[in-house]
Design goal:
- The protein has 4 helices and 5 strands, in the order αββββααβα.
- By secondary structure, it is an alpha+beta fold.
- It has a single domain, classed as Butyryl-CoA Dehydrogenase, subunit A, domain 3 (Up-down Bundle).
- The chain has a 5-stranded antiparallel β-sheet.
- The longest helix has about 40 residues.
- The radius of gyration is 20 Å and the shape is elongated.
- The protein starts with a helix and ends with a helix.
- It is found in: Cell junction, Tight junction; Cell membrane.
- Claudins function as major constituents of the tight junction complexes that regulate the permeability of epithelia.
Length: about 190
């Protein structure tokens, strides 16, 4: 039972960490959601803004200014939280691999291996909470920006909704949290 639980948590943690890394690196956190006939598809991300021409499929991306330049708070906070979540998730995966029962390292001391799995669960939980806060922060800020424009009767011709990167960040964080719960609460 313990080996099956460890392997389930490892598989979920690995997949969720990949989702988090992909969400951090991709550039479609906000996508235009106008119902009119669009000739282009716009995505805004943490690192750049891309426009895809719908007629010929040509994609052009504009990098944001230097990392040290002034950026909106939602971009800076989301970058920071997701990069920290990525680092913690990778560290937790490395610790979890060493603590798995099927790995021969430290086989003579099962108590240490169990503590490594528990520690990996705690680290994974911290990373998942940071990733979830960053993803939800960005999503709420997009929603509030849109709601503020609507309450002031300002229509710019296009409005933005959550992109697939935002959903991927939320899914990765949630998966890491579930894996953390499996490792910390169910393993003992």
């Amino acid at each position: 039972m313990s080996v099956a639980l460890q392997m389930t948590a490892f598989g979920l943690a690995l997949l969720s960490t990949l989702f988090l890394l992909l969400a951090t690196c991709t550039d479609c956190w906000m996508v235009n959601a106008d119902d009119s006939l669009e000739v282009s598809h716009k995505c805004r991300g943490l690192w750049r803004e891309c426009v895809t021409n719908m007629q010929d499929g040509v994609r052009t991306c504009d990098q944001y200014d230097s990392i040290l330049a002034d950026h909106p708070v939602k971009i800076v906070v989301t970058r920071t939280l997701l990069i920290t979540a990525d680092l913690l998730a990778v560290l937790a995966l490395a610790t979890l691999v060493l603590g798995l029962d099927c790995i021969m390292l430290l086989k003579e001391d099962p108590c240490v291996k169990l503590k490594m799995c528990y520690g990996a669960g705690v680290i994974l939980g911290a990373g998942s909470i940071l990733g979830l806060i960053g993803s939800v922060w960005y999503a709420v800020d997009v929603y509030m920006e849109r709601a503020m424009l609507m309450t002031h009767n300002i229509f710019l011709g296009v409005h933005y909704d959550f992109g697939w990167s935002c959903w991927l960040g939320m899914a990765g964080s949630t998966g890491c949290f579930i894996a953390s719960v499996l490792l910390t609460c169910c393993l003992y």
